Amino acid sequence: MVSGPNQNGFITHVVRKSKHSDARVKASPPNRQSPNPCPTSMADRSSTGGFDPSGIDEEAWTELERQLEATIPVYDKVNKIMTLGFDKGMRKHVRSHAKPGMKVLEVGCGPGSFAVDIVGMDLTCLDPSAEMLKVCKKRVDKVREERGESQASYVEAIAEEIPLPDNTFDRVFCLFSFRDFKDKKKGLEEIFRVLKPGGQLVICDAGKANWLHGLFGRLYMATFVQWVARIVTKDPNHPWKWLARTYTHYGTHSYYKGVMKEVGFQNVKARLLFPGMSSRFKANKPE
Ligand SMILES: C[S@@+](CC[C@H](N)C(=O)[O-])C[C@H]1O[C@@H](n2cnc3c(N)ncnc32)[C@H](O)[C@@H]1O
């Protein structure tokens, strides 16, 4: 399955125009929380621009990646302001689920905002964007060298097709990337496959505990987040205008808990992290 390093030294497999255009097969009716987390019948996402809680159509995802790459220069700054500085605590909370010596994978590492503080662990960073991986590698390699640690590995791939062997990792982390998966169930199945028996997945993403909480979240995304992004980027057409869509069509805690259980995860838990902007899911692969 591993396709070998490319000119950037990243292990590759994928990416932009992949087979995942058929992610639609698992789609539920547009922007509706289905009682069955993984409906078998196909629905049309065209009325929502290619999004629903189960995934994102290929064309919309390609544009999403373009918009995410455009955030790179100001990514950490905007995140810090729009979470009122709480992003630091959220990342710390997620990191506390791993211990030194563990083998850790971050799926959707972006520019390395979380990976950079993974200390004393064997780290693999995966992202479909070569641009993101380049920034992540530069940043993470530098701090790891300063700490006298071995270099991390970098994999250019999507969560839905992880070019790594079964039963490899003690922990898999997804910080603010699960919302962007093209096919959430397929991504979770791949994460399940690469986790060791007893290993744990921890996801942190924009919070949507339930429908009502989602309404407040949409208001926050449509107002405060947009003002912050507009002021920091000084660009009326900043990427967060577009990125807010992934939240609008994102599912609730119970929806994704259901999908995780279907995939085979145990001890599936979800909760909001203080002060309620983000959700943390955790789930174990059975021993
Ligand atoms: C908002 S950034 C998150 C960055 C970082 N994890 C953090 O802690 O802030 C989301 C990342 O998810 C990646 N991504 C998008 N779709 C993905 C997929 N299907 N599989 C894995 N990563 C994906 C994007 O390329 C992007 O770098």
Strand order of the largest sheet: 1-6-5-4-7-8-10-9
C-alpha Rg (nearest Å): 18 Å
Instruction: Kindly provide the name of the CATH class.
Output: Alpha Beta
CATH architecture: 3-Layer(aba) Sandwich
Major sheet characteristics: 8 strands, mixed
- Fraction of residues in H or I helices: 25-40%
Overview of the molecule:
Helix content is 36%, strand content 19%. It has a single domain (2-13, 49-284), classed as Rossmann fold. The longest helix is centred in the last third of the chain and has 23 residues, at 211-233. An 8-stranded mixed sheet has the order 1-6-5-4-7-8-10-9, with helices on both faces. It is α/β, with parallel strands linked by helices and 287 residues long. The protein has 8 helices and 10 strands. It has helices spanning 58-70, 75-82, 86-95, 130-146, 184-194, 211-233, 240-248, 253-263; strands spanning 11-12, 51-52, 55-56, 103-107, 122-127, 153-156, 169-175, 195-206, 266-273, 278-284. Bound molecules: S-adenosylmethionine.
Task: Describe the structure in brief.
With 287 residues, the chain is α/β, with parallel strands linked by helices. Helices cover 36% and strands 19% of the residues.
Write the layout of secondary structure elements.
Layout: E1 11-12, E2 51-52, E3 55-56, H1 58-70, H2 75-82, H3 86-95, E4 103-107, E5 122-127, H4 130-146, E6 153-156, E7 169-175, H5 184-194, E8 195-206, H6 211-233, H7 240-248, H8 253-263, E9 266-273, E10 278-284
Parallel strand pairs: 1-6, 4-5, 4-7, 5-6, 7-8
Antiparallel strand pairs: 2-3, 8-10, 9-10
Helix pairs in contact: 2-6, 6-7
S-adenosylmethionine binds at residues 65, 68, 107-110, 113-114, 127-129, 132, 158-160, 175-177, 180-182.
